[in-house]
Specification:
The complex is a heterodimer of chains A (313) and B (249).
Chain A: E1 2-7, H1 18-28, E2 31-40, H2 44-51, E3 58-63, H3 72-81, E4 88-92, H4 95-108, E5 112-116, E6 118-121, E7 124-129, E8 134-139, E9 146-150, E10 166-168, E11 179-186, E12 199-203, H5 210-223, E13 226-229, H6 231-235, E14 256-260, H7 266-269, E15 277-282, H8 289-292, E16 295-298, H9 301-312
Parallel strand pairs in A: 1-2, 1-4, 2-3, 3-10, 4-9, 5-9, 12-13, 12-14, 14-15, 15-16
Antiparallel strand pairs in A: 6-7, 7-8
Helix pairs in contact in A: 3-4, 5-9
Chain B: E1 3-7, E2 10-12, E3 34-36, H1 38-52, E4 58-65, H2 70-79, E5 83-88, H3 95-109, E6 113-117, H4 128-136, E7 140-150, E8 153-160, E9 163-170, E10 173-177, H5 189-195, E11 200-204, E12 217-222, E13 231-233, H6 236-245
Parallel strand pairs in B: 1-4, 1-6, 4-5, 5-11, 6-10, 7-10
Antiparallel strand pairs in B: 2-3, 7-8, 8-9
Helix pairs in contact in B: 2-5, 3-4
Classes of the chains: A alpha/beta (313), B alpha/beta (249).
The complex binds flavin-adenine dinucleotide (FAD) and adenosine monophosphate (AMP).
Flavin-adenine dinucleotide sits between chains A (204-206, 230-233, 244-249, 261-263, 265, 267-268, 271, 282-284, 287, 300-302) and B (14, 38, 121, 179).
């Protein structure tokens, strides 16, 4: 049976829900022991949040000033240093995990399994390729450590209520100083986080300007929804990059996804294939998006959207 | 900086609607349009701009693949790369081995920068740049949507889930690029002619002393589960009624 280490994702104050989704994946691998490691400059709060996740055996912390910001070249050697006891090392397939985990894998001399969607056996998994146009079953060798990222949209969050023990680990591994963190430009928003929101409304190029994109925020606010966008909308400057949904943006699985003025390009659709109900509003009745939509409305968004906002208010 | 190495992977063109072969052995590639991985085109464009700004002397395009990848390297040369190296392999290669190839070449060439795509759109691994940084012991800046070189350092804007993160790395470094970094130039006909005369060296992966492994083996391919065909509604009030019925609003 598997002994699994999960690298926690956090921003220094809050644990990212991706961690608890990794625990669900680990439980499916039949982990006899699921440990979570927290790297940070000040880890007590985050460690407690990890300890509460159901299924976690033990939380290990590595507290060092160098760990204040997640720099892969700094954190990977520390993760690699505590890997001996584990058969599997998992991280989320968010930008945090995608940056860090392959670095860990290479230090351990193994390949990584990226984006686990389902577990077929302790070393056998399904993962998406070609922007989700195909699903391949892959098998990692038995005699090597397995490093993987977990496609978080495929996994539910594990329950809470646990109280796993927390233990500090001292890792003296030398870490490089060749990479300096300068800063983060985050988009301030009171709306639900795109990656975990139950409802998401999203807009495409059709909005035509950042001013008109405001209509979408109005809809989001009456629905209590997170806001997403296509690459075209982000490229055109209607909204910030962290709203992009799709192959190169965020992969999400809300209960309700309302796509407005979005054509439905494969690179976009791969980001929402696990959504519960997809609603599409598009003025072109032949738009690709209608092939995947559960509910379609052929309409001009500038007519339909104000009406929809009014009806839901 | 003297040299920039750029990774050029040959992949199924992003406009192709990829289909899984009926026997599950992979995806259909017969008669399918192949192109440079779109992220790699952006990496090459960035390398050319750095060279044009006088901050590098040579841009080397590298592909690991079958002899057909010559086509993509020729396109890279036509875009403006100075020379190309094709590291030949029989079939597909695992990301760790590809990272090993880049490490050997980066050291041999004394590269100041290795620019790669943030992911190849066939395997969607997103591993090679990070692995190269680990093996080479140099900084990594992944998912770059902006960058500038200043002497022995690069400042990179990274597209992360929370927004845009800025880091500063010492050179040599590995940078993986995202879509918004730049708009690649179009190749002009005379450049295609000129590119035919540029050097394209071939070397086998074995001659570089690299053995594959340990490899994650691929089993069968399947098409993703399709979604059920949905319904059309005539107007906004019908939409709202349906959403109400389903308990979604
Ligand atoms: C390597 C690669 C990765 C990519 N990754 C992503 C990704 O992660 N996410 C992503 O989204 N894209 C991605 N793309 C881009 C993708 O291919 C499409 O170009 C993009 O999704 C199109 O965005 P859009 O639907 O907003 O624009 P368009 O395709 O231009 O569609 C606009 C739609 O709006 C409709 N419309 C216009 N006016 C109105 C109106 N008044 N009312 C109602 N409807 C209207 C039109 O009928 C049309 O269907 C990627 C591309 C590449 C090459
Ligand atoms: N066979 C290859 N030849 C050249 N470059 C490659 C190859 N495979 C991967 N790369 C580079 O590594 C990046 C990330 O690839 P991957 O980790 O496979 O998603 C690509 O965008 C390329 O720049």
């Amino acid at each position: 049976m598997a002994r699994i280490l999960i690298v926690a994702e956090h921003d220094g104050s809050a644990l990212n829900p991706s961690t608890s989704k990794c625990v669900s994946c680990a439980a499916a691998i039949d982990g006899v022991e699921i440990d979570v490691v927290v790297l940070g400059a000040s880890v007590a709060d985050i460690a407690n949040q990890c300890a509460a996740i159901d299924g976690v055996s033990r939380v290990r912390t590595i507290e060092r000033p160098e760990n204040e910001h997640p720099i892969a070249a700094v954190q990977a050697p520390q993760v690699a240093a505590i890997c001996d006891d584990y058969s599997h090392v998992l991280g989320p397939s968010t930008t945090f995990g995608r940056d860090l985990m392959p670095h860990v894998a290479a230090l351990l001399g193994v390949n990584q399994v990226s984006d686990i969607m389902s577990v077929e056996g302790p070393q056998t998994f399904k993962r998406p390729v070609y922007a989700g146009n195909a699903i391949v079953t892959v098998e990692a060798p038995d005699d090597a450590k397995l490093v993987a990222t977990v496609r978080i949209a495929s996994w539910p969050a594990a329950a809470g209520g646990n109280a796993a023990p927390v233990e500090a680990v001292t890792v003296d591994t030398a870490v490089p100083s060749h990479t300096q963190y300068i800063g983060l430009e985050a988009t301030a928003s009171d709306r639900p986080d795109l990656q975990t929101a139950a409802r998401v409304v999203a807009g495409g190029r059709a909005f035509g300007s950042a001013e008109k994109f405001e209509l979408l925020y109005e809809l989001a606010d009456v629905l209590g929804a997170g806001v997403g966008a296509t690459r075209a909308a982000v490229d055109a400057g209607y909204c910030p990059n962290d709203m992009q949904v799709g192959q190169t943006g965020k992969i999400i699985a809300p209960e309700l996804y309302v796509a407005i003025g979005i054509s439905g390009a494969i690179q976009h659709m791969t980001g929402i294939k696990d959504a519960g109900t997809i609603v599409a509003i598009n003025k072109d009745e032949d738009a690709l998006i209608f092939e995947a939509a559960d509910i379609g409305l052929v309409a001009d968004l500038f007519d339909a959207l104000p009406e929809l906002i009014e009806a839901l208010r | 900086m003297e040299k920039i190495i750029v990774g050029i992977k040959r992949v199924v063109d992003y406009n192709v609607r990829v289909r899984v072969r009926s026997d599950g052995s992979g995806v259909e590639t017969d008669g399918v349009k192949m192109s440079i991985n779109p992220f790699d085109e952006i990496a090459l464009e960035e390398a050319l701009r750095i060279k044009e700004a006088g901050k590098a002397s040579e841009v080397i395009a590298v592909s690991i693949g079958t002899p057909e990848a010559q086509q993509q390297l020729r396109t890279g040369l036509a875009m403006g790369a100075d020379r190309a190296i094709l590291v030949t392999v029989d079939g597909t290669v695992d990301p760790l081995s590809i990272a090993r190839v880049f490490k050997v070449l980066a050291e041999k060439e004394g590269a100041g920068l290795v620019l790669l795509g943030k992911q190849a759109i066939d395997g969607d691994h997103s591993q090679v740049p990070q692995m190269l940084a680990a093996l080479w012991g140099r900084p990594q800046a992944t998912f770059a949507s902006g960058m500038s070189i200043d002497g022995s350092k690069a400042r990179v804007q990274r597209e992360v889930d929370a927004g845009i993160e800025t880091v500063e790395v010492e050179l040599p470094a590995v940078i993986s690029v995202d879509l918004r970094l730049n708009e690649p130039r179009y190749v002009k006909l005379p450049d295609i002619m000129k590119a035919k005369k540029k050097p394209l060296e071939e070397i086998s992966i074995a001659d570089l002393g690299i053995e594959a492994g340990p490899v994650v083996t691929e089993g069968s391919y399947a098409s993703p589960e399709g979604r059920q065909r949905g319904v059309r509604v005539d107007d906004v009030s019908a939409l709202v009624n349906l959403l109400n019925e389903k308990g979604l609003v």
